[in-house]
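Long-time lurker, first post. I've been practising inverse folding by hand and with some scripts of my own, and I keep getting stuck on stretches where the structure tokens seem ambiguous. Below is the full token string for one chain I'm working on. Before anyone asks, I'm not after the true native sequence, just a reasonable design that respects the backbone. If someone could post their per-position residues I'd love to compare against what I wrote down in my notebook.
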């Protein structure tokens, strides 16, 4: 058992069972023993789209160039990435913009990263570029901006609620008789969603979605801006019990190894859409990743890459399938774009497929 498990036990002993959100925050962000401090496990605990293929970041780079022009080509503008991982996607994006030098000249790259070791890796991968790190989106400098984020929203801590009779009760983490961590249900809470939920229904609420939409709404009302999020989650219903933990590419129990696994939950795209519209942002999507990337030209890019690298045919085709097909990431992942009012429809959101 880790020191972090002891810390969590102490907190539970003195304060009582803790909400899932606090458990997630301690596991992820504890400055000494949290996952982002000790084991940001990209490429080891999980593999993301930019890590699967350069084509993903390249398509997003072209997307940025297109949207920058649609915004009236403001110069300079902030190119912000939330949760850039190893910096691979930003490197691929900037390389893809090499044929559009005016975008590169205007772009000021700002990275928002919680993990000191990943921030270091991002800086070295992007050395030669003028890249600034900030602690959160609200600290990114003022001005026109294009924000991109892949697999960032799923890291937000969630609270889970379970319908018990006419009450909603919050799922908690407490201690069993052997001092082990165990899920339980806390006292009833009032005023959660409508009565349409049957007994036993579960919902998850990530407060981070409220914060991110409010920050974007504030920014994008003062200066033109556009934010693209790609992540996993359903688009037609709210996620129920989706807290998951990954270690070394395998799914493990979320209470098994606090701080040593990647903890995630599905993104509630419906709620994100409602929050954004309420904050007067224009919303496009959510749309399935497969349709979005096809519309941006990923299939053609794969063909071109194969033509110039015939020896890599198998690898490139496999990556294309992984990113696009419904059986893999194509439909499970969604893209959603939040913008200042009055901007044209963004690339990738014209299509009629889901
Ligand atoms: N976008 C990358 C990495 C995804 S993993 C990719 O697609 O490969 C999630 C990333 O978000 C990591 O870089 C993690 O350290 C960062 N992160 C998670 N929560 C964060 C927070 N609250 N603030 C800033 N960065 C965060």
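-- Answer (accepted) --
I ran through it position by position. Result:
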């Amino acid at each position: 058992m880790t020191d972090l498990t002891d810390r969590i036990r102490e907190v539970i002993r003195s304060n009582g069972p803790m909400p899932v959100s606090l458990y997630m925050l301690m596991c992820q962000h504890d400055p000494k023993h949290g996952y982002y401090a000790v084991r940001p496990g990209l490429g080891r605990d999980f593999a993301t789209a930019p890590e699967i293929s350069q084509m993903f970041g390249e398509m997003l780079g072209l997307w940025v160039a297109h949207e920058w022009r649609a915004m009236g080509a403001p110069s300079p503008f902030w190119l912000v990435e939330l949760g850039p991982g190893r910096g691979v996607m930003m490197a691929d994006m900037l390389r893809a913009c090499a044929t559009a030098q005016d975008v590169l000249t205007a772009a000021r790259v700002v990275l928002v990263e919680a993990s000191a070791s990943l921030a270091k890796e991002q800086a070295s991968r992007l050395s030669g570029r003028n890249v600034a790190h900030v602690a959160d989106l609200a600290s990114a400098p003022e001005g026109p901006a294009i924000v991109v984020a892949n697999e960032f929203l799923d890291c937000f801590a969630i609270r889970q609620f379970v319908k018990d009779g006419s009450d909603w009760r919050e799922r908690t983490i407490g201690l069993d008789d052997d001092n082990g961590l165990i899920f339980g249900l806390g006292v009833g809470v009032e005023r959660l969603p409508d009565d349409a939920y049957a007994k036993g229904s579960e919902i998850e609420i990530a407060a981070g979605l409220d914060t991110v939409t409010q920050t974007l709404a504030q920014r994008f009302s003062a200066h033109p801006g556009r934010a693209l999020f790609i992540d996993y989650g359903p688009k037609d219903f709210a996620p129920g019990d989706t807290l998951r933990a990954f270690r070394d590419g395998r799914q493990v129990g979320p209470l098994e190894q606090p701080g040593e696994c990647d903890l995630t939950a599905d993104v509630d795209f419906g709620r994100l859409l409602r929050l954004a519209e309420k904050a007067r942002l224009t919303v496009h999507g959510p749309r399935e990743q497969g349709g979005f990337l096809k519309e941006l030209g990923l299939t053609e890019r794969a063909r071109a890459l194969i033509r110039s690298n015939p020896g890599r045919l198998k690898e490139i085709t496999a990556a294309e399938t992984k990113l696009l097909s419904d059986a893999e990431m194509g439909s499970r992942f969604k893209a959603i774009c939040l913008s200042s009012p009055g901007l044209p429809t963004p690339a990738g959101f014209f299509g009629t497929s889901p």
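A couple of notes from the structure itself: The pocket of S-adenosyl-L-homocysteine is lined by residues 36, 40, 42, 48, 50-51, 83-85, 89, 112-115, 118, 150-152, 155 (CB under 6 Å). The longest strand covers residues 167-175. Happy to go over any region you disagree with.
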